[in-house]
Amino acid sequence: MRKKLYTFALATSFSAISWAQVSFGNATHFNDDWKFVLADDSTSRQANYDDTKWRQLNLPHDWSIEGQLSPNMASCTGYYPGGIGWYRKHFDYKKTDKKQYIYFEGVYNRSEVYLNGRLLGKRPSGFASFLYDMTPYLQEGENVLSVRVDHSRYADSRWYTGSGIYRDVWRVEAPQNHLAQWGTGYKCTKLTNASATIDVEVAVDFTQQNTRAKIGVELFDAKGKRVAQENIGKVAKSEGKNRVSLKVNKPKRWDLDSPYLYTMVTTLYEDGKAVDSNQIKVGLRSIEFDADKGFSLNGRNMKVKGVCLHHDAGVLGAVVPEDVWRRRLINLKAIGANAIRCAHNPQAPVLYDLCDELGLLVMDEASDEWEFPKRKWVEGWNVGTPSFDGTYDFFEEWIDRDVTDMVRRDRNHPSIILWSIGNEVDYPNDPYSHPVLDGKNSAINQPMFGGYDPSRPNAERIGKIAKRLSACVRSVDTSRPVTGALAGVVMSNETEYPEAVDVVGYNYTENRYAEDHATYPKRVIYGSENGVGYDAWMAVANNDYIFGQFIWTGTDYLGESGRWPSRGLHTGLLDFGSNPKPRGHFRASLWCEKPVCYIGTYPIREQKGRRQWLSQDAPDLWNYDEGQRVRVVCYTNAPKARLLLDGNEIGAERQRDIKNGMIYWDVDYNAGELRAESLDEQGNVVAEYAIKSSGRPYELRATADVETLATGGRVAHISLDVLDENGVLVRLADNNIRCTVVGPARLLGLENSDNTDMTNHRDNQERVFRGKLLAYVASENEEGEVEVKFSSPLIKGTSVKLKVKK
């Protein structure tokens, strides 16, 4: 029988960067000086292969984003190409008694790794992290590592994936006996204001058995003071679990507003000498899921205000630097988001590290496709005849390991609160079907592709697979619930799927919340994927038993494109460059506790018999024809607001409409400064937002988010605005910009966030969109001064200076 209440108390962690998420040995970046060719030659694996004419580059690398956009490519992956590529790296090895490993955080996809012509292993998943032992095949002197990446099935995903070794690579040196890969984990069995008890589990890989080995575990607070210490005197053999408990007095909790992190140091000793160790960041917190009351963090009930995120960053493709992730997450948190759903695959380790640091909850997700392929739209989203390429062909052989590895790799992050075993694998007739689809109450809020189709796989298979994958998760971690994101809840309710997981996610199915809560009173329900509609949020806010939602999406992303020209799907609260869109400001008015005010406008187009709509996507533009009738919408969480033009009231004080969450005024356009003032119940101004009429483009203004960059690829975001003579942003501008970088830095790309711009965003020229452009500039390895120059015909240019230091 299912329990109504799921309570989990957890002491969680993430591996320090020097351990590369492996948690053993001495790991160093292995990213520099690789050779690459976009071609397939099986002899490329041989050590003596002539690669002198290959391109030299540093990892991470995504060759798809470098390719030519073409309407002949698939819309599902953003009209970018795939292909087969080879990478080779020459490196020296001096013989030692230590073991040597190579660790890949992610390769898309179907990778094969060779050392001196010998196969180390294959990993078909493009999102799994994996490790190989190089020791048996290393030779004194020069060695060659060769990696074949096969993304010839370029339309194998419903969104942009990228191609190549797109995440970091690490070389790991370790003693013969060492701590095991992802072998250190723990959970909190007691957490109060007075004390915490943390049960630690440590696995050791033994090449040479040593009966005098022991393990030491220490916990340090954020200031470096040791607060707990215990030893394990008798160490179990390889893959055995060595356990010890730490006692912490007056523990500090990890929370959204105060994400406190301890550091746990685990050391392996042999004959009294330390031979291996790892450092793991630790966050202490408790989570609770209740079928009636929703979700609680550290005993405090709250709504999960989540967003779904794919792994690309527009012009940067799948190679997303830490600084870009950080800015994106900070901007999402600023508009009220408190949770991230990894859609629909394990993400790069840096994402989880940042969520731990910044205080964001995470739903980690394993896959989007199980044993059969889904539709992949190639002519435009939900248009034409789909493709059925995919990753289903290696599902049976690899899914258990992929799911288990996800949990083992990520289990020590305090940010993670849910393990998802799959997304929309129950989409009706894509591929599974069931007789219930012919029923009167069988519709879902997405396309169904018809009623029951007996020629398709029976949906009951879903439940059996869900039980199998849930068991994989629980074999590693029982401190968090297992979930799944269900598209066809009406169909899955006829299977074992909802009972196989602990918490049931509903995608775009708000209309079934009340019905299913009554029918399945023990079921914990939430919105695992939702549109931006006001009613969808009210279904969460007004029902205690729905603990949250995950908006589709946090940012615009590549792929799932419409008909050409379309780079991707622009459903994001943030644009491709991670700047808030109007709908992001509207979401802030629903989610933020601090006062919020924003105004946007659009012309009124009278249509007989139809009411003028209220839009979440109103741009902050104030340039129209004199006297033109314009609707001004205000997104605010204050109870009321008023509208002023050049300080004079033109829109009387109005109450926020609880039916749509907005305030609006219809006014005649006159040039000037339009300002909304949000008011509290007493009439005090608590927030305001102003926009101004602009003239013609006159000059450029550039602003960098940092003044100094560390060497080695750190990224500055430089925002470029087109201004008129009075310094007002020209929202209608589309000037062509040239960017030049002088000094020890390089331009990664220019992002204008225009979804219909299919030009090359990787060169040094780009048009602004709605008066703005974002430049990504990365530091090189040497110190010096950098000047980033921007110019455009017929208007004044500008520049920004940066310093690069070690």
Folded structure, characterized:
It is a single chain. The protein is mostly beta strands. 12% of the residues lie in helices and 39% in strands. The protein has ten helices and 46 strands. The strands form ten sheets. An eight-stranded parallel barrel has the order 21-22-23-24-25-26-27-28, surrounded by four helices. Strands 1, 14, 15, 17, 18, 19 and 20 form a seven-stranded antiparallel beta sheet that branches. A six-stranded antiparallel beta sheet has the order 4-3-5-10-7-8, with no helix packed on it. α9 links the parallel β27 (524-530) and β28. The protein starts with a strand and ends with a strand.
Oligomerization category of the chains in this entry? single chain
**Portion in beta strands:** 35-45%
Strand order across the largest sheet: 21-22-23-24-25-26-27-28
Q: Distance between termini? A: 59 Å
Instruction: Describe the largest sheet.
Output: 8 strands, parallel, barrel
Helix content, binned percent:
10-25%
- Rough shape? globular
Radius of gyration: 27 Å
**Broad structural category:** mainly beta
Which ranges are low-confidence, i.e. pLDDT below 50, for 5 or more consecutive residues?
1-19
Number of helices: 10
> Would you report the number of β strands?
46
Mean pLDDT: 95
